[in-house]
Amino acid sequence: MENNNFDIQEELKKLPGKPGVYIMHDERDNIIYVGKAISLKNRVRQYFQSSRNKGVKIEQMVTHIRRFEYIVTDSELEALVLECNLIKEHRPKYNTMLMDDKAYPFIKVTVNEPYPRVMLARKMLKDKAKYFGPYTSSQAVRDTIDLLHKLYHIRSCNRNLPKDTGKERPCLNYHIKQCEGPCQGYISQEEYGKAVQQVIRFLNGNFDGILKELEEKMNAASEALEFEKAIEFRELLNSVKKVAQKQKITDSSGEDRDVLAVASEEEDAVVQVFFIRGGRLIGRDHFYLRIAKEEPHKAVLDSFIKQYYAGTPFIPSELMLPEELDDIELLEEWLGTKRGGKVTIRVPKKGTKEKLVELAANNAKLVLSKDKERLKREEGRTIGAVKEIAKLLELDDINRMEAYDISNTNGFESVGSMVVYERGKPKRNDYRKFKIKGIEGADDYGSMREVLTRRFTHGLKEREESKELGGFTLFPDLILMDGGKGQVNVALEVLHELHLNIPVCGMVKDDYHRTRGLYYHNEEIPIDKSSEAFRLITRIQDEAHRFAIEYHRQLRAKGQVHSILDDIDGIGPARRKALMRHYLSLDAIKAATVEELADVPSMNERSAQAVYRFFHGKEESVEGNL
């Protein structure tokens, strides 16, 4: 909602000359840009000075600014940290946004335990265990762990050793000779520790010893005519060689570093990252970003580094880039604080390191050229479809859409769902479930009224208590109702009562329960069924329905569905189900006589009287109705 009381020119005069973060809002109070500044006074003023060359993206953003706010910090480093957090939380429209959100696996060795284990981990915790990685392939990690169990016979169970020693029989891994049975005390902690040290050497890339040992065992078994053993050793030998070949040497320093490069074309960009661990290239990955036309590569890299390393659990000691960034020293300080040790950002000018950066850049160009058409199709399915919907409804801009649906079983247990789409993609962290509390029976309109009232009342309350936007405090640009005129009017009534002005659109279905058009401003708007807008509307409708049904099933599966009939003495699950099958609604049960209730299968006169008394009060004579 536009804040008409905010005078931008007057507020500019009040800005302090201190470091901090500034937050730009549009007419709907959405956060559209977050930035940091050494001096808030100087930096924010620049956006509103006509003489400055701000670039196309910034000029467009400025036209949408209706108010701004700022947070003062003690240092520019604190401002950087806050800027990263706010961008990640709110994903503002005019910040260069990272489109991928990937978590890479580690190999974890629990050296903090008396009998350590080797396992896959998604996060690097401060638990005194040793972590190796991150790796780009979960399957490669699982294969490596499986190989380590075969080579060194490390346990894979969750038993608390040595406390649980001898309490249970050894597992299958002991019998197939992939574990030495520490759970039975068959191996000392000292001997087991030696095997663990070999695992750690292997994960550090020292393969020579195990390769020589396996080759000797294979040859010995072959000479002794134990061909099955020889084949087993040969397969292990090949597996180790396969792992060793993936650990391509890139330099002899043995350091951990990431190599970054970027390629861009129009509004598409790809950042390529090479992961070097212990001096070895263990993998690579690429990330898509949406950028402004002619946005410089160093600005893209700056945005990527802040967003990517704000969320990744591992930060290497060095980043290698193709060009200098403006805030290298500040970024180094921030990364070092997150890592707990020094981080250096370098721009190599010659030798192997320069070639590695060049290789990353070439790969980024290759990915961009190869996937350009796919990127365009993806944009058409998401952002393009949203633009089509906005054009159909004659709305200026749509970013966030919320859709609602109701699900129940013959009116006995109603639940509501709220799904959220931003820029045409589902934002599952913002999905919400509602268990209907104040409505009895199959009253979809009443249930929807309760859901919307609870959702927006809660959002308004959170807005009053906190200046930060997130969760329920983020209001949609468009509300989509899983129905036509009736559902839309319910939503409009709720919004009117809460003094909110949000467009509401119904998704109208035909006789076969298929979407045929949109109901907006008291008229039905047809949609071309071959358009991306129609496909997106259908996806949103299906998602809202799926989410509601899934929640309903979860409640039933956990035995949490509670009918009002459960509160009646003598009515257990069997009789409750019988009543639900026989009568289509709670009102029908209330209207039934004792004789009619007693005729329901599994019911008797006593239980029928209990039901009747429950709904009609003890003061009424049940006998008089017999």
UniProtKB/TrEMBL annotation:
Keywords: Cytoplasm, DNA damage, DNA excision, DNA repair, Excision nuclease, SOS response. The keyword Signal does not apply. Pfam families: GIY-YIG, HHH_5, UVR, UvrC_RNaseH, UvrC_RNaseH_dom. Interacts with UvrB in an incision complex. The UvrABC repair system catalyzes the recognition and processing of DNA lesions. UvrC both incises the 5' and 3' sides of the lesion. The N-terminal half is responsible for the 3' incision and the C-terminal half is responsible for the 5' incision. Belongs to the UvrC family. This is UvrABC system protein C. It comes from Faecalicatena faecalis. The gene is uvrC.
